[in-house]
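JOB MANIFEST
job_type = single_chain_structure
chain_count = 1
residues = 176
[input]
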Amino acid sequence: GVKPSMHLISDGDVILVSGSVGDHGTAVMLAREEFGLRGDLKSDSGSVYELTEAMMKFDGLRFMRDPTRGGLASVAHEIVRATGFGVRLTEDVPVQEQVQSVCDMLGYDPLYLACEGRVVTIIDSSQATAALAAWQSLPSGKGAAIIGKIDATSNRVILETQLGGERFLEELEDDP
């Protein structure tokens, strides 16, 4: 019965991610050894079937997408372009310590790195907590988090910092 579509997204909807971001993109960089770095980080590559199936029971489900090319930030920009609403992300986006360390050394932002086994979901705010619990009960969703909301007062992708500041997340200009 539920047919997610970007056109169902509305002001105040909540954004969830099924786990940490940037794992796959960072694992690929480490595997290629182009930067002389090594680590034991594993890609998040895997099936998203159980994650998407768990969300289908929520009639407040608006939209789902895998953040593969261009990562979470690129999905957020797709939403802004399609809806005209802003996307406000919090710094609560889960990022593994190893991923953040590699990104800090190389000047990358993990929000733009590929994820191969993650799902970004937009859901009615009244069902966000239950949806989060549904994901966290699954092996592939243990690291799920509420990471933001849809904001009709803006038409940008904004990251709210823990210090109360804001940072615009610009759209990628080239192929990731």
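[summary]
The chain has a mean pLDDT of 91.
The longest helix spans residues 71-83.
exit_status = 0
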